[in-house]
Amino acid sequence: MAEIVLETTGLTKFFRARKAVDDLSLRVYEGDVYGFLGPNWAGKSTTIRMLTGLVRPHGGSARLMGYDVGAQRVQSLRQVGAIVELPAFYKYMSARENLEIFSRYSGGCDKKRIDEVLDAVGLLDRAKDKVKTFSHGMVQRLGIAQALLPDPKVVILDEPTSGLDPQGMRDVRELILRLSKEHGITVFLSSHLLHEVEQVCNRVGIINRGRLVAEGSVGELLHREMSIVEFGVSDIAHAAELLSGVDSLKVLETSACCVSINGPRDCVAEANRALVQSGIDVYSIVPKTMNLEDLFMKLVGDGEEDD
Amino acid sequence: MTSFILEIRKMMRKARTYIGPIALSLLTLAVALGVKHDNHAQYMRRRMENDFIVAGSMLNAAFLCRVLLEFIAFTFLPLFVCMVCADLMASESADGTMRMVLVRPITRARVLISKYTLGMLYALKLTVGTGLFAYLLGWLMLGRGSLVIFENGIWVVPEHTAILRLLAAYALIGCGMMAVGSIAFAVSTFLSNANGAIGAAMGVLYGSAVIGQIQYFAKLKPYLLTSPLEKWGEGLTGPFDANTYLHSIGLLLTYAVVSFVIGLVIFERRDILG
Ligand SMILES: Nc1ncnc2c1ncn2[C@@H]1O[C@H](COP(=O)(O)OP(=O)(O)OP(=O)(O)O)[C@@H](O)[C@H]1O
Ligand SMILES: [Mg+2]
């Protein structure tokens, strides 16, 4: 089993009466590209602030690289690079100077390394320009460069592609994959862009209203969680009625020739058995693939119905 | 040490760092011109020089240093010091660079101490630097000589003694500026708005000046920020009592240290949300 490099247990944070993060427990293993997925206001940034020691939790704890962030903040951040919310820089200084200053806060690095990270995000030829002249996307890129600067084992990125153009998004996705594959860096990234997470992450945690609603590998989540299956049957009305009686599944819709159900994998067999035993002919069983977006909408949508 | 050097680098790149020194230099020049060409002062000088034997000119460098302090000690000097001290923390909170710094493996205390030390050095340097500049400019434009002051009589302090006493006066004001700057700094640890912190510190300064005038608060008076600060001129218009100065400096430094500790405690506990 790979080592746990980032972990939260029962992490909780209030802002006045509102719970921004609620009993959140996550685990990120070495080598993971972990997608921390959630809609606006879900509590992603607040969680990242607690992970990096900017904000003190009201309950629970966070551990990074085996150190408790609350008690040993400096040690826990030694091998970590991070962006929290939008990256910010000293606007009156050049990109290179900014990186130099930030690198010195974590022990310094040589000029070559600064060139390397600037090159990695495509900003090498703008290194001498003042940050105040940078566009939103350039600042975002410089933020990523800044996070990579100390040659970290873990990078924590809060919505790293926000404000980037499609090419920029693709560059960042490729960069993340490269960091993970070539350098073995563990990546924890928050996002509300589902296809992005689906493309780069091997594991995801879905957060809504401060609560973790699902966690696991992308494939596992999609399969374990729910599948939508279409049954082609002889007697639609009867089949629908029968299937509605099965506890673990839900009839989504009926059309002229089929009934769609939604439920855990095992109940497909159970549904089939029930249909056949009641004398209904089953012509076809077609699994409808669910993507992360369906899952996300389902989990996040359910959360809203609860309130 | 590294973080202190980084703070110096940031400070050197900011326009507001230079506003104080430039404005105060211009003001010194204006006051020097005033002293040189003021008719009333020149008339007094001529009369005095008929009745007494004064070594050198009476309206001289030492005189300029003393007059200047009267103009700036409670006005421009604290304002320019607060402008820089309040900005050290507040600007980084407001710009979001504070969170960029604090996700790195460095303690909050170290960040705070580097900034505070720099702020205090700035306060001292601005005060003493202004005094030095005034003395040199006065020397060039007006010449040197004894310090002569008309206040409850006429005080003549020989040149060498005058320089030492002026130094004491500037040192006291310097400590006062550290106290005012510390208040601005402490407020800026939880207010991500430099102007608010400047207002708060200047408010404490002027507020204590007002309270000091009210009889009802007479018991409080010795501990008000302005009371030790007002003592700066005592050694120039009377016998020099080192104890008065040491006591006042002690009180001002207490203000500075207490403010710093409050700032440190707040900053250590505070959530960085900006
Ligand atoms: N400084 C603050 N003061 C009060 N409430 C806050 C503060 N910061 C965040 N919150 C609240 O905490 C909750 C979570 O916010 P957070 O910024 O963590 O969400 P997020 O998932 O990062 O959202 P987004 O996708 O919009 O960035 C929200 O309800 C928000 O209103
Ligand atoms: Mg956010």
Written overview of the protein:
The complex is a heterodimer of chains A (307) and B (274). Chain A is α/β, with parallel strands linked by helices and 307 residues long. Chain A has 11 helices and 14 strands. Chain A has a 6-stranded mixed β-sheet, with helices on both faces. A 4-stranded antiparallel β-sheet of chain A has the order 2-1-4-5. In chain A, helix 4 packs across helix 5 (136-148). The longest helix of chain A is centred in the middle third of the chain and has 18 residues, at 166-183. The mean pLDDT of chain B is 91. In chain B, strand 1 (147-150) and strand 2 form a beta hairpin. Chain B has 274 residues and is mainly alpha-helical. Chain B has 11 helices and 2 strands. Chain B has one domain. In chain B, helix 5 packs antiparallel against helix 7 (108-142). Chain B is elongated. Bound molecules: adenosine-5'-triphosphate and magnesium ion. Adenosine-5'-triphosphate (ATP) is lined by residues 15, 18, 20, 38, 40-46, 192 of chain A.
Helix content estimate of chain B: over 70%
Segments of chain B where pLDDT lies below 50 for 5+ residues? none
Quick one: biggest sheet of chain A? 6 strands, mixed
Q: Report helical residue fraction of chain A.
A: 25-40%
CATH superfamily of the largest domain in chain A: P-loop containing nucleotide triphosphate hydrolases
In short, what is this structure?
Chain A has 307 residues and is of the alpha/beta class. Chain A contains 11 helices and 14 strands.
Q: Which characteristics define this entry?
A:
heterodimer; A: 307 residues; alpha/beta; Rossmann fold; 2 domains; six-stranded mixed β-sheet; four-stranded antiparallel β-sheet; elongated; disordered C terminus; B: 274 residues; mainly alpha; two-stranded antiparallel ribbon; 2 strands; binds adenosine-5'-triphosphate; binds magnesium ion
